[in-house]
Design goal:
The complex is a heterodimer of chains A (about 170) and B (about 575). By secondary structure, chain A is α+β, with helices and mostly antiparallel strands. Chain A contains four helices and nine strands, in the order βαββαββαββαββ. Chain A starts with 6 loop residues before the first strand and ends in a 7-residue tail after the last strand. In chain B, the strands form four sheets. Chain B has a six-stranded parallel beta sheet, with helices on both faces. The chains are: A alpha+beta (about 170), B alpha/beta (about 575).
Chain lengths: ~170, ~575
């Protein structure tokens, strides 16, 4: 295994929208000791088809294997490798900040403005923020807010991605 | 429109798929299917004594006939007993369709009596698995199951049948067509890639064919032999690939790998082109990866894209069915100048020929040599362990002599049920199983099945009183601490044979055979081997057990240590 090529990679997957398919995909990763960094899934315009966005940290050879192994599953309709493809990719992140002082609240509004986040709920001493940005930026936000405030609660959705419209189509 | 129950549709589907043999064991959740099977006479039902053995029987039936093996077991423990057999079939690419009973839909998830999530349990050891949740999907799912099991790289498929779905009335039609959008197995050979590979073959000075089990599964033996003869390139095989070309063919060198022939492993070490077909470069074949075929470019033909560059990085991959690829190759290949290379291999063969040291007492090789001599035609089935490796080393194979074994998973207990399945599929061919005394006892109850089905199989036991292969490792790598490997004294044995009195071996296989209504023979001398086989081969309806008393000190050589390299090859002790 070549350790030098270890990096985060993205795959988009069309699968049958059936019972057990998510388990089959995640089981493939755990069973074969592949890293599964993030996985999101939802139905498409065709209710019989779901689409997954998967992130994995792996080297070149393992990543090739992952794609082949996914392709071989009967329930997998299509595997798209997002490497070297222009993609639009975002992740939703909610951060609830508790035990806020009035100064904290001012700071949170400033953070929200800087990161183009929305303050979507407001309590006596708490605030709820919604971020829609890249997962890397969300990582940075979480780090920042963990350092700045006494009590935060975090939930994030995992990235969803789609190929950009190519120059040909524009 | 006429409506029928799911049970009726299933039995109809079996007929339309040409399933004339079904291996089944009944239970509460499948009793209605059993009832439907009772009312028809197209599909013959075999009733084994244990579901564990049942799958092996269907597996060997499939391997030896090329048809899909079909199993029917009940829910819960019936289903979980399939697990080992499914994994066995999965690793050796055997087409099976296994129907499991399931509790009614409203009970699923309630921890009902005999309920298990068998589709979940077997997800990683089946090619495909599904619970039928709607009666209307039943026909389509069964149709797809047979298609998936036998196409592409074959494998086991599991269909879970809730009892209420099967009782429901619905569509009586069994579909004629299959269309699965996520499953389109390769049928075409990429001719560009193949030509590239052929060009490399033409340029190579020391080319070597490596044939794996894929050549046998694709039944490409005849074409492959033509290819070898046309190119004059020597052949090594994996254990599963043995028989890809007749073992007495002048261009056949032998098996490679952990217990492979010296000449084969040397040839792989020295070749400049390894042209491999239908193998997944399992660790037992390659040993330490970085020193495997160090001077060679590697061509790999395989039907499974994921098998390519999984373990060994390949220079030219060709995704194709072995037979299709070989047929196309025959159009383009020319003879290679391999005279010097063949001489070199010949020298290695002379230096360390594949044979056991001659001893005054009977050796496993004596038994296998006798089988080679006595039988013109045979299906030989092995269990797992030393006897399996001895067989893989010495058995002669050709168009009429074939070998079945659990190569990938290494499942002990495969031998006897394997012989039963093979005999049911090949009633006119002599079927011989070779087991150790350990493996034989893992499914010995199947003697009853063999007796009731009147199968004149010859079941050989290489009895060395020990779990020999593990003991071999203990002897070579664990300071002769024979922990848990003596079947005569049990785990209490501390290797003090001679100092303390060992109990008599249990069971007495000859008397055991007789109690089942089979015949038992015990052979301890070389000169008794042939008469025993001559007697057994005359049997028309009665299974024979022949117990060979083998010296536990007979070890399998050569041996490359697990994870070792060629230099670590132990030739003899």
């Amino acid at each position: 295994m070549n350790g030098n090529s270890m990096k985060k990679r993205w795959i988009s997957l069309y699968v049958e929208n059936q019972v057990g398919v998510l388990s089959k995909i995640s089981g493939l990763f755990s069973g074969k000791s592949y890293n599964l960094d993030s996985l999101t899934v939802g139905t498409t315009e065709d209710p019989t088809i779901s689409r997954m966005t998967i992130a994995t940290v792996s080297d070149d050879e393992t990543f090739e294997q992952i794609k082949k192994q996914l392709n071989r599953l009967v329930e997998v309709i299509k595997v798209i490798d997002f490497t070297d493809v222009f993609v639009r990719m975002k992740e939703i992140l909610y951060v609830k900040v508790r035990k806020c002082t009035p100064e904290d609240k001012v700071e949170i509004f400033q953070i929200a403005e800087t990161f183009k986040a929305k303050v979507i709920d407001y309590g006596k001493d708490s605030l709820l923020l919604e971020f829609v940005q890249t997962a890397t930026k969300n990582d940075a936000v979480i780090k920042l807010m963990k350092e700045e405030f006494k009590s935060i609660e975090v939930v994030r959705g995992g990235s969803v991605g789609i190929e950009s419209i190519s120059m040909m189509e524009r | 429109m006429k409506k029928i129950s799911g049970n009726k549709l299933l039995v109809k589907a079996l007929k339309e798929e040409g399933v004339d043999i079904l291996f089944g064991y009944p239970g509460a959740c499948t009793i209605d299917i059993s009832d439907e099977l009772y009312k028809q006479d197209y599909t013959k039902v075999i009733l084994p004594r244990q579901e564990v053995a049942l799958v092996h029987e269907a597996d060997a039936y499939a391997r030896s006939t090329g048809k899909v093996g079909v199993c029917l077991v009940t829910s819960g423990p019936g289903a979980t007993n399939l697990v080992t057999g499914l994994a066995t079939a999965y690793y050796d690419s055997v087409p099976l369709v296994c129907f499991t009973g399931q509790v009614a839909r409203h009970l699923i998830g309630n921890d009902a009596f005999q309920e298990v999530d068998i589709v979940g349990i077997t997800r990683s050891i089946t090619k495909y698995g599904v619970t039928v949740r709607n009666r209307d999907d039943l026909g389509r799912i069964v149709k797809e199951a047979f298609y998936i099991a036998r196409s592409g790289r074959p494998g086991p498929v599991l269909i879970d049948l809730p009892k209420d779905v099967m009782g429901e009335l619905g569509n009586a039609e069994y579909p004629a067509e299959v269309n699965i959008r996520g499953y389109k197995p390769n049928t075409q050979v990429h001719i560009g890639q193949l030509k590239k590979a052929i060009k490399m073959l033409g340029k190579a000075k020391r080319p070597l064919f490596l044939a794996g089990g894929g050549v046998n599964i694709a039944r490409a033996n005849e074409e492959f032999t033509k290819l070898v003869e046309k190119t004059n390139v020597p052949v090594v095989t994996t254990v599963m690939g043995r028989g890809a070309i007749a073992t007495n063919h002048p261009l056949y060198v032998g098996n490679l790998g952990m217990h492979g022939a010296y000449a084969c492993n040397m040839a792989v070490g020295e070749c400049d082109l390894l042209f491999s077909i239908g193998t997944r470069f399992n660790d037992r074949i390659t040993g330490k990866l970085h020193s495997f075929a160090p001077h060679a470019q590697i061509v790999h033909i395989d039907i499974d894209t994921a098998a390519i560059s999984k373990n060994v990085q390949v220079d030219v991959p060709v995704v194709a069915d072995a037979r299709e690829a070989v047929i196309r190759m025959l159009e383009y290949v020319t003879e290679c100048d391999t005279k010097k290379w063949l001489d070199e291999i010949g020298e290695w063969k002379c230096k360390h020929p594949m044979q056991m040291r001659k001893k005054p007492i009977m050796t496993p090789q004596d038994v296998i040599d006798t089988i080679n001599r006595v039988f013109d035609e045979a299906v030989v089935v092995t269990d797992v362990g030393q006897h399996q490796m001895f067989t893989a080393q010495f058995i002669e194979l050709n168009a009429k002599k074939r070998l079945l074994m659990s190569g990938g998973l290494g499942t002990m207990g495969y031998g006897l049920p394997g012989a039963i399945g093979a005999k049911i599929g090949n009633p006119d061919v002599p079927v011989i199983s070779i087991s150790g005394d350990g493996g034989m006892q893992m499914n010995i109850q199947e003697l009853a099945t063999a007796v009731l089905e009147e199968l004149p199989i010859i079941s050989c036991i290489f009895n060395n009183n020990n779990l020999g292969m593990v003991r071999q490792w203990q002897k070579l790598f664990y300071g002769k601490r024979y922990s848990m490997t003596c079947l005569r004294s049990g785990a209490a044995c501390r290797g003090r044979c001679g100092e303390v009195e060992c109990p008599a071996y249990t069971p007495d296989f000859v008397r055991l055979a007789e109690s089942y209504g089979a015949k038992g023979l015990r052979v301890s001398k070389t000169e008794e081997i042939e008469p025993a086989f001559r007697e057994a081969m005359k049997s028309v309806k009665t299974p024979y057990i022949i117990e060979f008393e083998i010296d536990p000190e007979d070890l399998v050589y050569p041996m490359i240590q697990p994870g070792g390299t060629l230099e670590d090859m132990i030739l003899d002790c």
